Amino acid sequence: MLIEGPYGVLTDVVRRNHRVLLVGVGSGIAPVRALLEDLPRDVDVVVVHRASTLHDAVPHGELSRIAAERSAARVHLVTDPRGPAAAPGRPLGADHLRALVPDVASREVYLCGPPSLTADLIATLTDLGVPADAVHTETLVL
Length: 142
What we know:
Layout: E1 19-25, H1 29-38, E2 44-50, H2 60-68, E3 73-78, H3 94-100, E4 108-113, H4 115-127, E5 135-139
């Protein structure tokens, strides 16, 4: 058995912006949930929770409850079928992410998910104008 992390990337300690986007994919939603709870209540936060199916989105109710206790928080659940990175309109592609979070380029982003999706999302965030130093990631080792 090999145990790794946490590495401290998905913590409030590195945050420099009052507006934050948290993206959790699959089991990557667990550290995102913890960060949502730890962020100061006045931080403007958007959570994007990506799950394969609605059945897999078990923590969504808890995320919504935590967000409701904050002054400025929104939670989006994305359960659309997966698609190739280059497919127009794919879930969490540039158009979809821009529709969910129109001010994404002005937010600090925390991202946790599987390696290929994390890489795709980093490229998408770059295309949307998010500076590289505003993106904090932990990739799940599967």
